[in-house]
Design a protein that fits this description.
Order of helices and strands: EHEHEHEHEHEHHE
Bound molecules: NADP nicotinamide-adenine-dinucleotide phosphate
Distance between the termini: 40 Å
Oligomer: single chain
CATH architecture: 3-Layer(aba) Sandwich
Radius of gyration: 17 Å
Shape: globular
Largest sheet: 7 strands, parallel
Structural class: alpha/beta
C-alpha cells in the first residue's frame, strides 16, 4: 500500500505520513522548500520499517505535480491514498488583502488540491480502489476575523470533497475531508499571542489539538473500516465555538 501526503515536511502532513507508515503504508513525502525537514520525515518513516521518498514539488504548479506523479509511479508503482494537506494561511482583513497573497492562497489551497486529486484519481481508477482525504479547516464553517481568504479556500475544499466523492464513488474511490480547529504547528506562529489565548478559551476541551490528533482521523478515513464513508467533512476542534 502506498500513500502520498502533500506538505509532509512538518506539521499535520508529517504526522499523517508517520501514522500511515505505522499503519503499513509506504509513503511519498511531498514538500515545497525545506529539503532538510523532508529528509527527516523520510528517515523517521524508514525507522518504522517502511519505504519513503521525498518529492519536492509546488502543488500549485501543474507541471511539477505531473512530474511528481510520474516519479512516484516509477518509485512505488501504485497509489492507494492521497492526503491533500499542503496549504498556506495569510491572514488579512478585507481592505488589507493584496493580490499576490490572494493568488498564492487560491493557487496552493484550491488549485493544488485539484491538481493532486486529478493525478491521483487517474492512478486509482485503474485499480477501482483509492482514498482521498482533503485537509480543510474549521475556518470553512466558522467565521474567524481576518481569515476571509483562508476560509474561502477551505470552503472550496469542502465543496470539492462533496462533488469529487460523487464523481469517483463508482470508480471505488472515497473522498472525505477533515476540518481541524486550532492545531499546534508552525502555522499558528502567525497568530498573535493574545488572539491565541482568546481562542483557547473558546475550546471546551481546554486546549489546542495536536498534529497527531488530526493524523489519527485521517488514517481512520483511509482504513477499510471507513469504506462506506464518502463526501464527509469530519470536524475535529475540541468543541470550538467562536
Ligand atoms: P505548516 O506547519 O505551515 O506546514 C505546511 C506544509 O505544507 C509544509 O510541509 C510545507 O512545505 C508544505 N507546503 C506549503 N506550500 C506548499 C506547496 N505549494 N507545495 C507543496 N508543499 C507545500 O502547516 P500545518 O499547520 O501542518 O497545516 C497543514 C494543513 O492543515 C493546511 O492545509 C492547513 O490549512 C490545515 N490546517 C491547519 C490548522 C492549524 O491550526 N495548524 C488548522 C486547520 C487546518 P515546506 O516546509 O517544504 O515549504
Amino acid at each position: 500500500m502506498v500513500a502520498l501526503v502533500t506538505g509532509a515536511s512538518r506539521g499535520i502532513g508529517k504526522a499523517c505520513a508517520l501514522k500511515l507508515a505505522e499503519d503499513g503504508y509506504d509513503v511519498a513525502v511531498n514538500y515545497n522548500s525545506n529539503d532538510a525537514k523532508a529528509a527527516e520525515t523520510v528517515a523517521e518513516i524508514e525507522a518504522l520499517g517502511r519505504k519513503a521518498k521525498a518529492f519536492k514539488a509546488n502543488t500549485a504548479d501543474l507541471t511539477a505535480v505531473q512530474g511528481m506523479f510520474r516519479e512516484i509511479q516509477k518509485e512505488f508503482g501504485q497509489l492507494d491514498v492521497l492526503v491533500n494537506n499542503a496549504g498556506v494561511v495569510d491572514d488579512a482583513y478585507l481592505l488589507m488583502i493584496n493580490e499576490d497573497s490572494l493568488s498564492r492562497s487560491l493557487n496552493i489551497n484550491i488549485k493544488g488540491y485539484f491538481h493532486c486529486a486529478q493525478q491521483a484519481a487517474l492512478k486509482m481508477m485503474s485499480k477501482k480502489h483509492g482514498k482521498i482525504v482533503n485537509v480543510s479547516s474549521v475556518s470553512s464553517i466558522l467565521a474567524v476575523e481576518g481569515q476571509g481568504v483562508y476560509s474561502a479556500t477551505k470552503g472550496a475544499v469542502n465543496s470539492m470533497t462533496a462533488t469529487l466523492a460523487k464523481e469517483l464513488a463508482p470508480r471505488g474511490i472515497t473522498v472525505n475531508a477533515v476540518a481541524p480547529g486550532f492545531i499546534e504547528t508552525e502555522m499558528l506562529d502567525a497568530i498573535p499571542e493574545e488572539k491565541l489565548t482568546e481562542y483557547n478559551k473558546s475550546i471546551p476541551v481546554g486546549h489546542f489539538g495536536t498534529a497527531k490528533d488530526v493524523a489519527n482521523v485521517v488514517a481512520a478515513l483511509c482504513s477499510p473500516a471507513f469504506d462506506y464513508v464518502t463526501g464527509q467533512v469530519i470536524v475535529l476542534d475540541g468543541g470550538l465555538s467562536l
